[in-house]
């Protein structure tokens, strides 16, 4: 991109920021372009907006035609029907408003996801002791519907992710067209929540090698080095008998050979990875952590500024993936 194009894009961004500030200053309640809010968030009458839908506009046009015809022909029955339908329409507007009024967002949590995957965001809603019907939550490029009469309900939204690290939760729109679809009532939710996204592992590469020398435990197994001698026990392989040493004693002696225990902590060291870029190193370590966790192994993760482990299990896995996600 040329310097001229860069200057033009920066000037456009500055103009847009000024325009947004002007809109917020003059129409703050309508735009709702405000800072993120802390939980819990409660929807009240000052932040619920109502407009007729396309179907509502068509219905209003039909009512207007019916009213003109009833007045022109002095038809009391047609006039009564028009007023009755108009009253139902106005009442449906109040019903749509009450479907959102008092609704509270109590908590938001998400299951861990890796960059490139969809983050499953669970939004817990408190009905406030009032049945909620045909609610729709729009956000992150999709929408979900919910109807519930209990004290609280959880709604799951799918949020696409692109990169590792903290991800700010975008705005969510809660809306309803209940009961007849004549009016749409809506309100914006912008919770002050940041969700952690794990790094995406590399698709293929060499396996992790090496045992953590500081935590390695050694047990008598088949190997190359002599660990010691012990008395012969039934079932010991004959090739392990130390015949020359046994000749000096009354009993048979067996050589014990050792090798690293399969449960020894595997070392996943940042400094051992060569020839890769910064993000590629993170992707490789992420793959090694995932593989070690899937195989039930113990591992130590050594990063430039910290060392995690040795350990195993879900808690150690999430600690290591979080540390990789938060690397600068």
Automatic annotation (TrEMBL):
Native species: Oleiagrimonas citrea
Disordered as annotated region, ranges: 204-228
Entry's transmembrane regions: 48-71, 77-97
This protein's name: DUF58 domain-containing protein
Ranges of Basic and acidic residues composition bias in the record: 211-228
Keyword annotations of the record: Membrane, Transmembrane, Transmembrane helix
């Amino acid at each position: 991109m040329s310097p001229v194009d860069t200057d033009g894009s920066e000037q456009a961004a500055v103009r847009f920021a000024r325009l947004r500030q002007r809109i917020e200053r003059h129409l703050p309640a309508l735009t709702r372009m405000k800072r993120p809010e802390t939980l819990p968030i409660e929807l009240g009458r000052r932040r619920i907006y109502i407009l007729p839908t396309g179907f509502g506009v068509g219905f209003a046009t039909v009512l207007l035609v019916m009213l003109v015809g009833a007045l022109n022909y002095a038809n009391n029955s047609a006039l009564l029907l028009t007023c009755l339908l108009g009253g139902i329409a106005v009442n449906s507007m109040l019903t749509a408003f009450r479907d959102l009024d008092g609704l509270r967002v109590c908590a938001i949590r998400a299951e861990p996801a890796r960059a490139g995957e969809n983050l499953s965001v669970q939004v817990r809603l408190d009905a406030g002791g009032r049945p909620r019907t045909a609610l729709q939550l729009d956000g992150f490029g999709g929408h979900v519907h919910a109807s519930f009469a209990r004290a609280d309900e959880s709604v799951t939204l799918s949020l696409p992710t692109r990169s590792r690290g903290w991800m700010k939760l975008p705005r969510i729109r809660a809306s309803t067209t209940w009961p007849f679809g004549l009016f749409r009532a809506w309100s914006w939710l912008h919770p002050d929540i940041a969700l952690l996204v794990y790094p995406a592992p590399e698709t293929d590469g060499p396996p992790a090698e090496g045992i953590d020398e500081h935590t390695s435990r050694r047990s008598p197994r088949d190997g190359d080095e002599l660990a010691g001698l012990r008395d012969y026990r039934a079932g010991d392989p004959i090739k392990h008998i130390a015949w020359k040493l046994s000749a000096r004693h009354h009993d048979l002696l067996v050589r014990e050979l050792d090798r690293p225990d399969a449960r020894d902590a595997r070392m996943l060291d940042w400094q051992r990875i060569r020839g890769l870029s910064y993000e590629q190193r993170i992707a490789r370590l992420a793959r090694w952590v995932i593989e070690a966790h899937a195989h039930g192994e113990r591992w130590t993760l050594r990063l430039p500024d910290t060392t995690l482990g040795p350990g195993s299990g879900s808690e150690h896995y999430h600690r290591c993936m979080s540390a990789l996600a938060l690397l600068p």
